[in-house]
Amino acid sequence: MSDRSPRNRAPQRRPDPVRQLAYRVIRQVTAEDGYANLVLNKTLRDQRMSGRDAAFCTELVHGTLRWQGTYDAVLARCVSRPLPELDANLLDLLRLGTHQLLRMRVDSYAAVNEMVTLTRAEAGQSRSGLVNAVLRKVSQRTLDQWITTIAPAPEDDEYGYLAIAKAHPRWVIGAFDDALGVRGLERDLVDLLDADNDPPRVTLVARPGLAELDELIEAGATRTRWSQYGAVLQGGGDPGRIGAVATGRAGVQDEGSQLVATALATAPLEGDDARWLDLCAGPGGKSALLASLANQKDALLTAVEPQKHRADLVRSNLRAIPGDHQVLVGDGTKPTWPAGWYDRVLADVPCSGLGALRRRPEARWRRTPDDIAELQPLQEALLSSAITSVRPGGIVAYVTCSPHYAETRAVVDAVLDSRSDAVVEDARELFPGVPSLGGGPDVQLWPHLHSTDAMYLALIRRT
């Protein structure tokens, strides 16, 4: 019998289960437009993966997606045909291998061999040779050497250089640079891009009246710098293991989101303060904090969300909060309530999400300038509806998780220019102790200055 008989072949190695899991999460994100944080968290829970394996899988997924643009530029020099001609699954395998070689402390020999084994299992034996050859070419240079090789000189094309060196699309870099200039801040563009590339911390909120910060601190968290309700879970890990989080008395929420919701709840208000509205509520993190704060003033919150499944998420977030708070499925641009019915209104409008690139690494490659233009009419309609919904003397918080000028000041200016019954008030005094808020009257938070998402707030009073 020939030595090539299947009976005499050595059994093939099985792929590393953590790398295989990371690859399958990446495929869900790139092929099915999934959200990395949601898909990864569900997968880790389903597979009951924790500790070092969960941390390694998280870095593989988020790092590969975060640096995708840079890795594609490297791979374009190592593959003999244009990248768009490669099968999408093969390209994701190459990106995953490149991340291990260029930005992780993984031995290059081990990284290549593990990826060849994974390719054999996921894409077939015929593809493993290409992956082996390409990744060996990638491993011949460090990341810095590759950037020097493929990026334009920074003095000739700054944005082009940063696009490769800091893994952000050129148009996003330009928008961030413009936004920093509008705020009158020092031109710390590189610091901002670096902060976007830092893995985010797990930040918790102790919902007032339901949980105390000490409970989160006893579970291993430390206080946040600015929010009186916030704590950072040190070392990461599953926040669901904390009793207050598991029961809904606390939740996972970026410190910036806590600050803008608290600003609305604490803004000075004369007269009635009994009816609050969250106009764009899903998935409900800010709704839960607002409802908790409303309880302290004997107020009730109405949360409106157009999509039923997201409205269900809002209800889930409100499950532990006492009171007759309402969740409505409806279009915030077409109110079913009387004009001037509410005392405080949050309009946390749909936006590009460019302020949360730390948490949603795939968003930088998924969004385009056209998305900004398409969202602006909806943002203006929602803000106008919010102002109409609040009583004279009442307060509206216009909020976006984006620093892009077209989604922030431009929307506020367009709406207020079209009506004479509202004014912007200085919101900075509602952020006590928080530095670098710019010249006002609106507030822009930044990852590199405040260690938060880039949340924007304009505080508008109905006159």
Automatic annotation (TrEMBL):
Positions annotated as active site in the UniProt record: 401 (nucleophile)
Pfam families tied to this protein: Methyltr_RsmB-F, NusB
Gene Ontology biological-process annotations: regulation of DNA-templated transcription; RNA methylation
This protein's record includes keyword Methyltransferase: yes
Keywords: Methyltransferase, RNA-binding, S-adenosyl-L-methionine, Transferase
Residues at which S-adenosyl-L-methionine binds: 280-286, 305, 331, 348
Limits of the SAM-dependent MTase RsmB/NOP-type domain: 176-463
Gene Ontology molecular-function annotations: RNA binding; RNA methyltransferase activity
Gene3D superfamilies per the UniProt record, alphabetical: NusB-like (1.10.940.10), Vaccinia Virus protein VP39 (3.40.50.150)
Family: Belongs to the class I-like SAM-binding methyltransferase superfamily. RsmB/NOP family.
Cited function: May act as RNA methyltransferase.
PANTHER family registered for this protein in UniProt: NOP2 YEAST -RELATED NOL1/NOP2/FMU SUN DOMAIN-CONTAINING, RIBOSOMAL RNA SMALL SUBUNIT METHYLTRANSFERASE B-RELATED
Protein name: 16S rRNA (Cytosine967-C5)-methyltransferase
Species for this entry: Kribbella voronezhensis
